[in-house]
Design goal:
By secondary structure, the protein is mostly helical. Helices cover 76% and strands 0% of the residues.
């Protein structure tokens, strides 16, 4: 199922770029030039959507879990070494939460789709006092939630067949 969820995440990422791009345009006062300046943000959002599609399976030993932790652990270490302790704590907390939950229980819910990507909103707010960086988390969050929900929809369709 790993490949299936990655494929669904990639397809969903194209659709997720609609609200992501709309948010970037809104944030940048509807300047189309901003899209050219924020191409990196769009690429990150694309990747976050695909990772979001893997997130519900983080509660079991799976390829999704290995991929996500291979990304989270170095980020957490960098935050600690950079003395961003609150931000590292947020990632650590949200990183261990799925391991105390049962599979296809809490992580396979719409509530989890809203809560588990929340660090993408929280960390930019904690890390900086600059408004443009605080708002950066919104596009990341939108992409991850789209990906997460795509996983739930794919699982639901799979269970019906």
């Amino acid at each position: 199922m790993f490949r299936g969820h990655v494929r669904v995440g990639i397809i969903t990422a194209f659709f997720a770029m609609i609200p992501v791009v709309a948010w970037i345009l809104y944030r940048e006062s509807w300047s189309v030039v901003a899209l050219g300046l924020h191409w990196w943000e769009i690429l990150i959002c694309f990747a976050l959507c695909v990772l979001g599609a893997m997130m519900p399976d983080i509660d079991i030993k799976s390829k999704s879990q290995r991929v996500i932790y291979a990304i989270l652990i170095p980020i957490d270490v960098i935050l600690i070494l950079s003395m961003y302790y609150r931000e590292a704590a947020v990632i650590g907390l949200f990183g261990i939460l799925p391991n105390v939950l049962k599979h296809r229980g809490q992580t396979h819910s719409r509530l989890a789709a809203i809560i588990l990507p929340a660090p993408l909103l929280i960390i930019p707010i904690l890390a900086t006092g600059r408004l443009e960086y605080q708002q950066l988390g919104v596009s990341y969050y939108i992409a991850a939630v789209f990906g997460y929900i795509s996983h739930l929809v794919a699982d639901r369709k799979e269970s019906k067949t």
